[in-house]
Amino acid sequence: MAKCDVCSKSMSFGLKVSHSNRKTNRAWKPNVKRVKVVDNGTVKTAYVCTRCLRSNKVTRAV
C-alpha cells in the first residue's frame, strides 16, 4: 500500500531510460511510514508519507 492517508500521494509512473536510450516502464513509490496518529482525540495507525511527517501535518501519538 503505497499511498499517504493525509495528502493522498500515491505511485507515479514513468520510463527508465538506459544509456543506449532503451525505455522500460518503472514506478516511483512515495516514502510511506506506518505511524500512530492522534485523530480527534483517538489514537490510530495510519500510513503517512515522510513529507507530511516533516511538515507536521499530523500529530504523532507518544
From TrEMBL:
GO terms for molecular function: structural constituent of ribosome. One of its GO terms (cellular component) is ribosome. GO terms for biological process: translation. The keyword Ribonucleoprotein applies. Keywords: Ribonucleoprotein, Ribosomal protein. Belongs to the bacterial ribosomal protein bL28 family. This is Large ribosomal subunit protein bL28.
